[in-house]
């Protein structure tokens, strides 16, 4: 049974820990492949955020994200997407992805920055990874995420 304070409530730090732990293990995970225009395909493991609640929580409260890991956000229609880093403690890069899997643009985002980072056009997907991972893997706008099963 979890520790309870004088009033029977969980301490705030314990709640944040539980939120992060529950989020990290509860989402579907998939192996993704990005086909680069130049070079071999690149694989990564991503959590899949399908529902509005999963998308809103995203990678909030995480203290780390290993290279080669990420989160793929799925939307039901093309739209201008806007992400921010509220309660997100790690630097991220985000790729906005068209419905055919083409990476439209890649942008960097700073921890805890609440400035919206908008896609320049309507897109269907967004992929967040540790900041700099796309560049290190040789992935650029125009490369393609294989969307088998989505």
Question: Your description of this structure?
Answer:
- The chain is of the alpha+beta class.
- It has helices at residues 12-26, 52-57, 133-136; strands at 29-35, 42-49, 69-79, 82-83, 92-97, 103-109, 117-118, 123-130, 144-145.
- It has one domain (27-145): Jelly Rolls, CATH 2.60.120.
- It is built from 3 helices and 9 strands.
Features:
single chain; 150 residues; alpha+beta; Jelly Rolls; seven-stranded mixed sheet; two-stranded antiparallel ribbon; 9 strands; 35% strand; globular; disordered N terminus
Task: Describe the secondary structure blueprint for this structure.
Blueprint: H1 12-26, E1 29-35, E2 42-49, H2 52-57, E3 69-79, E4 82-83, E5 92-97, E6 103-109, E7 117-118, E8 123-130, H3 133-136, E9 144-145
Parallel strand pairs: 2-3
Antiparallel strand pairs: 1-2, 1-9, 3-8, 4-7, 5-6, 5-8
